[in-house]
Amino acid sequence: DADGARRLLRRALTEPPSADVIAQVLFESGRAEAVVRDPNAVARLREALADAPEPAARAAVSMTLGEALVYAYDMEAAIGVLDAALAEPDVPPQAAVRMEIARYIAARTVLANGAAPDERLEALAASEAGDVAPVLAMRASAALLRGAPVAEPRALLDRALASGATAEEVA
Questions:
Q1: DSSP code, position 18
Q2: Are 33 and 40 in contact (CB under 8 A)?
Q3: Burial letters 8-22, b for 16+ CB under 10 A, else e
Q4: What pTM did the predictor assign?
């Protein structure tokens, strides 16, 4: 259970862990706190991000921190964290796709004009950055919400399915 994991990981931080695993323990603790909506999650994840040793770890922490900030309804901070992570060199492609989707959700909540986040997703969908099927599905959903002709979201979903994604993965 997440609350039990949160308590155990907090205890592990008091011992304290060795320098080579502190970033991972901070991340796991922050992630467990985020699951139970503990207000300490954001601070713990920020600390984990500062200690994260390599691009994949920083991307994972940034994604979790961005989500925690969205849940705390601090959309502008979430966008800032995700933008900083996306600007880093060597971001794993799948992590970049997930972060762009999280950024899109936060930006759509903040911005009255949805053009900017839609343009980012369009550029990502046209790129070779990992599996873009979820991005295409998100763009199809946005097209439906803005009242686009049915042919537009259908074409996007057809592209997602043509990429080899299953309907369950696209949904």
A1: P
A2: yes
A3: ebbebbeeeeeeeeb
A4: 0.67
